[in-house]
Each structure stands twice: as C-alpha cells, then as structure tokens.
Structure prediction request, 148 residues.
Amino acid sequence: MRSMKGEVVLNILAEKAWEMYRDNEVISKINPEMLAQAEYIQGDGNPGSLRVFKLGPVVDAAISNYVKESTEKIEKVEMGQSVTYRVIGGDLRRMYDPYRVTFTFIPVEGKENEMCLAEWKAEFEPLTPENASTIEGKRCCSRIPQVV
Prediction:
C-alpha cells in the first residue's frame, strides 16, 4: 500500500479545528478556491455517513484531468481527534482502491490553548500503473490542508 502525509500548525484550538472540519458550511467557506463544497449526503458525520467533497478551481486547475469530486464513507471517528474516510465514489475511486484518508487534530504541547497540529495521511493502491505515476506527480494535493 502506498501513502502520502502532511501536517501544518494551526493557530486555533484542536477542538475548534475539529468542529470546523466537521461542519460542511464552515469548511466550504474557509477557502472555496480549494474546496468548493462539502456535504453529508447520508448520516451526520458518524461512522457509515457519506460525505461528498467538490474541489475548487485552484485544485481543479492543478489536477483537472484527475480529481474533481470525491464521495467518502466515514469509517472511524475518534471524537475531537481524528476521522478516517474511505473513498467510495468519484474520480479517486476510479483510480485507486482503496483510497483512505485520516485527518487528525492534536494540541501543540505547551500551547494547548492556542495551537494544534493538523495532520493527514492518505493510504491508497493504484488500479493501474498509470495511476501510480499520477499520484506521485500530483503531490500538489499535499498542500491543501495548509489553507485550513
């Protein structure tokens, strides 16, 4: 299984970052150029829920031939800490199986009331050799969480 990961320090509490990430309306407003829309199409964010992410024009321009939309099923939730999605539809699903992403929000030691570390990790298996080179060549996605 292949993987990618990234992290960024945010100047907000981990709990606040968690709330913002889980709220479709808020996350869609943070940087609509990168993430145009998020919507729970089934459920409320607990395991088994389905969420659609529609990428914005900045990301679309960078990887327009690859990913525009992703339907993800929530597999695991550790309240206030992390959420794991498995892609079940959209462009990524046609290229990788599985494609699983975990987002984690960790308070920064000594600055728990000010900052948190936002981490993400994607684990995936390309369906074809061409898709293996596509993800390696399109690591621009690794910068997406830095705008949150």
